[in-house]
Sequence to fold (179 residues):
Amino acid sequence: MSVDIAECALFVVLMVAGAYIRIPFPLVPLTFQTVVSVLAGLLLGWKKGAASMCVYCFAGLAGLPFFTGGGGITYVLKPSFGYIIGFIAAAAVAGVVAGKESCGTKRYIFAALAAFLVDYAVGIPYCIIAAKLLGVENLTKLFLTGNLIYMPKDAVLCVLAALLAKTLVPVIRRGKARI
Fold:
């Protein structure tokens, strides 16, 4: 039980670090949150992966400065909040698709890319609806500059996460067997 809590806490910390490690990029800096959420699902399984992303989300909403722009309940009004919800779904999908047993490289890659797509499937509609409610008029530009340009980077990072998970899962399982 305490190992499970520690694993989830580790991914909450990694998610916060992923939000604050920013690579300058036009319009919005690049962060590593999508790949951390995918890794959470691949390495922890769907339940603990999604649980760790829920803790991250609720701690940020409670006011802890966990999100890229701080925290607080008003964050739900930001167009980017949909991706935070998507991180929960992405971790769950990665864990479900990868399964409980060690699987092959192709399955890890498929799980990671499915999770990546789920994050964007939740994030993009939320972004567009929130932006429209906030009075943003050029939604096409928002989609292109605030969403589409990040997809190739996230897809590549998710494939790398799948390769990392393929290597780490057997090591983690051996370590747990010794505990």
Summary: The radius of gyration is 16 Å. The mean pLDDT is 90. The CA atoms of residues 129 and 135 lie 10 Å apart.
